[in-house]
Amino acid sequence: MKEVYDLIIIGGGPAGLSCAIYAGRAKLNSLLLEKSAWGGNLLFTEKVENYPGFFEPIFAYRLAEEMRKQAEKFGAELKEEEVIEIDIRGKEKVVITEQERIYRSSAVVIATGTRYKELGVPGEWGLVGKGVSYCGTCDGPLFQNKEIVVVGGGDTALGETIFLSRFAKKIFLIHRRDRFRGTKVLQERIFALPNVEVCWDTVVLEIKGVEKVEGVRIKNLKNEKEDFISCAGVFIFIGVKPQTEFIRKLIKLDEQGFIITDEKLQTSQEGIFACGDVRKNSLKQIVNACAEGAWAAISAEKYIEEVKNG
């Protein structure tokens, strides 16, 4: 299958959906490709309370659905396919998906976002879905009145711990440093929760369990003492990494794998743009992802006009 578009957008999170909306309004023949679920990491949040225009918090899935419908309303074509390669050797950009479909376009916008980092300890991978989770909103209600472990110390870890405290009987919050990296407001909320115990200067060595999580083996980095915490679940929030594997050899990335762009959001390859969380130095917030999506669409539109008139 070979299809030709003005613009192909890769990634259906807030940045990609916003880009599709603006591309549609510009009357570009655009295709938006998403490998899993429309909304991206937005769906790992229960409610959004800092998106402009909503006095009351809005459910994240609803916000994502409204963005999707708006993109379709303005003419963007949406397909659930995973991109595995981009070929720029010819005049057009050639986008190849895992479904063995080939799409061509004058320009491409990469908005693939990030995915959550893993601890990389024994027992973690085998117990994913059996007590190990990277999404409190998704799995928190499954641990009603149970004891759980949360790993991390940034905004995501603190925010998810606050959410999980509604369900869990007790939470052991494990952080490898002696202070949190998260914002002060979230820290204050954490310290006020009666069912949260913070384990400072501590790391997880192993997640124990056979058919389900039974506990974690931990180590205090200051006194070298090891201990065991019995728990029913382990929630891991230690950061994210960009989803750029498929273009690692194509465009310039920083040392962490985030895409480097110029002020117009163009990458090191002419006609390929990037926006949202996958871009270096991008503020990891929904409102910023949407703004960058709009910006990328406008930059791509100007590039496409130059190509057509050149």
Fold and architecture overview:
The protein has 310 residues and is an alpha/beta fold. It has 2 domains: 2-115 and 240-309, 3-Layer(bba) Sandwich (FAD/NAD(P)-binding domain), CATH 3.50.50; 118-236, FAD/NAD(P)-binding domain. Helices cover 23% and strands 29% of the residues. It is built from 6 helices and 19 strands. The protein has helices at residues 14-25, 60-73, 136-139, 155-164, 184-191, 286-309; strands spanning 2-10, 30-33, 47-48, 58-59, 77-79, 83-87, 93-97, 102-110, 114-116, 132-133, 147-151, 170-174, 196-199, 202-209, 213-220, 226-230, 233-236, 240-242, 272-274. Strands 1, 2, 5, 6, 7, 8 and 19 form a 7-stranded mixed beta sheet that branches. Strands 10-17-11-12-13 form a 5-stranded parallel beta sheet, with helices on one face. Strands 14-15-16 form a 3-stranded antiparallel beta sheet, with no helix packed on it. Strand 7 (93-97) and strand 8 form a beta hairpin. The mean pLDDT is 94.
